[in-house]
Amino acid sequence: MPNIAENFERRTPDRPERPKNYTEKLKGLLGNISEQTNREIERKYGLYSFLNDDCTISMEGYADSWGGIYGEEEIQAHKDEIIKREVGFSGANNPNTQDFYRTEYGIQDQEGILKRRREDKEKSKSGQMEMGTTALLVKILGGDFFVFRSATYDDYNGVDNIIVNKRTGEAVCAFDEVHEGGDGRRTDEKKVKMKKIARGVGAEISYGMNLEGGQLRRAKMGNVPVFFLSLKREELDNLLDNMNFDPGSEATVVENETFSKLLKSLRQQQQELLTDRKVSSAIVQRKLVSFGRLLTDLERLGATMR
Question: What is the tens place of the pLDDT at every residue in 48-103?
């Protein structure tokens, strides 16, 4: 059921009431980022409509009729899988759930329930976490890296963001984001999942890309290390309270502080995986080392921002 409590924000006597959430501002910011990124990709590589207006990778562009890698039937099968998972998570085929949505919202069918659930997710803290961290990464890394929200199909397989080096085309890493309520349980779950992926062969991304001969192409991606980005509720609130929603703006002090915190966590995760003897894939090991070099560069950047 929708978490009503997440629509209300805390107030203190010395702090004015703020908007109930930042969903609309974040959606507007990501819309501007998507438009700018699509223009850059069209101009440089001739790929059109690479992103949807929420910075997620558009699955439609991967159809072979667009010069992509999948037949229409395969893409439709992926979309059917997404709906199946949404129905499972939401209970939209459960009579009790259907009765609730019918009584509370006048929603009469399964499609309407799923639409409402998607809207509720955008307004939730986890939804704002996904949008806010994407905007933060683009603002700080966007000069040298593409930062994409994964296609919905890959999102349901545990990948929220993909970072791609604009010069080399290498997928430096993928992120799985988590909004931590406070007890640390969700972060611990993500850590276990991260290690499991690295001890295998890394993540496979069905709607990814590569850079060959200076040309960005839609492609599957494999052996990608997955790290998690975690912010507690108060940290997320502080970030959004102090975020500049102008896509061309300089990062604020709090944005830089949040980025530095995330960097510290990523360094710890990278070191844990590098020293984990169960990570046996040579390709994953190589990408972990490459990610370490990136972190070193970003740590230097962070030092100049403080």
Answer: 999 999 999 999 999 998 878 999 999 999 999 999 999 999 999 999 999 999 99
160, 252, 44, 221 alpha-carbon torsion, rounded to 10°: -20
CA 206 to chain centre: 15
**Neighbouring C-beta atoms of residue 113, cutoff 10 Å:** 24
The stretch 119-146 carries a mean pLDDT of 90
User: At how many degrees (to 10) do helices 253-274 and 233-241 cross?
Assistant: 140
What percentage of the chain reaches a pLDDT higher than 70?
89
CA distance linking residue 287 with residue 290, whole number of Å: 5
Please choose, from the candidates 149, 150, 152, 159, the residue with its C-alpha nearest in 3D space to the C-alpha of residue 81. 152
167 vs 153: CA distance, rounded Å: 27
Model's pTM, two decimal places?
A: 0.86
Domain ranges of the chain: 126-305
Give the dihedral of Cα atoms 59, 37, 171, 260; nearest 10 deg: -120
* Strand pairing report for 226-232 and 171-180: parallel
**How far apart are the C-alpha atoms of 173 and 194, rounded to whole Å?**
12
Q: So what's the pLDDT on residue 21?
A: 67
